[in-house]
Amino acid sequence: MTSPSATQDSYPYQHEPIWSRSEKAIARQAFDAALGQELHEVIQEAKKMASQIQQSSELWDLEHYLTQRRKEIDRKYDFRGSRLTDVLGRLLYENRLGEEDLRGLPEEKMKSIRSFAQFLRHSAA
Amino acid sequence: MTSPSATQDSYPYQHEPIWSRSEKAIARQAFDAALGQELHEVIQEAKKMASQIQQSSELWDLEHYLTQRRKEIDRKYDFRGSRLTDVLGRLLYENRLGEEDLRGLPEEKMKSIRSFAQFLRHSAA
Q1: Could you give the maximum distance between any two Cα atoms of chain B, in Å?
Q2: Is the confidence metric ipTM above 0.90 for this complex?
Q3: Please, is B75 exposed, middle or buried when counting C-beta atoms within 10 Å of its C-beta (0-12, 13-18, 19+)?
Q4: Cα dist. A98→A113, A117, B39 in Å?
Q5: pTM of the model
Q6: Per-residue CA distances from A19 to A91, A105, B21, B30, B85 (Å)
Q7: pLDDT tens, B83-125?
Q8: Among B38, B47, B77, the residue to mutate for chain A (most A Cβ within 10 A)
Q9: Cβ–Cβ of A66/B63 closer than 8 Å?
Q10: Which of the residues A24, A117, B22, B95 could staple to A89 if both were Cys, CB 3.0 to 4.6 A apart?
């Protein structure tokens, strides 16, 4: 698909919805809150793990935990428009945000977000 | 030097002294004590860093610190006979062990160990 033919009412890349500035602002707020909460949880867990360290193997367990969580969070919190529907759907599935946090998004986007959350629910079952 | 010619009283590889079983036992005790002390220090520092974390950047600072220290310790504590003189010399230079911890090693080995510590002292000056 090197030269996609764009038409007036369809975006050249399928599955890549356009996010308006105001929609992005709504998404950004929910996204940042979920990320902040997740980082807070990692901080609390790291403090707990560190406080319980008695031998060096537990020290490297802490390092491993931090590396894994950093990579996972980097992968998960991707704000690019092309990924945003799935990212918000995953956060919804993980209960890191609720539908009320996305109030103001058009129903069409909410549908896609809910649909991805539902897909993850089924995959996990 | 693919086919070194060993003679009765010289080891085929220069700079690779032979460590007898009893010398290795002395070295091992000093080595393990220094390693244990260094790991203890890293554990204390990690606990302190973790207890002071307030934001996520400090969380990844802790991860980075642990990764660096692990790699450094892995490199430094190498018990192979071919490396042991330099390893003990470095620990002597860093005051992680004293000459008294190596009591029982032959003077010839002590000389090499002291000499490497001295070399590091000069390099750092």
Answers
A1: 64
A2: no
A3: exposed
A4: 11, 11, 44
A5: 0.83
A6: 18, 10, 72, 64, 64
A7: 999 999 999 999 999 999 999 999 999 999 999 999 999 999 8
A8: B47
A9: yes
A10: A117
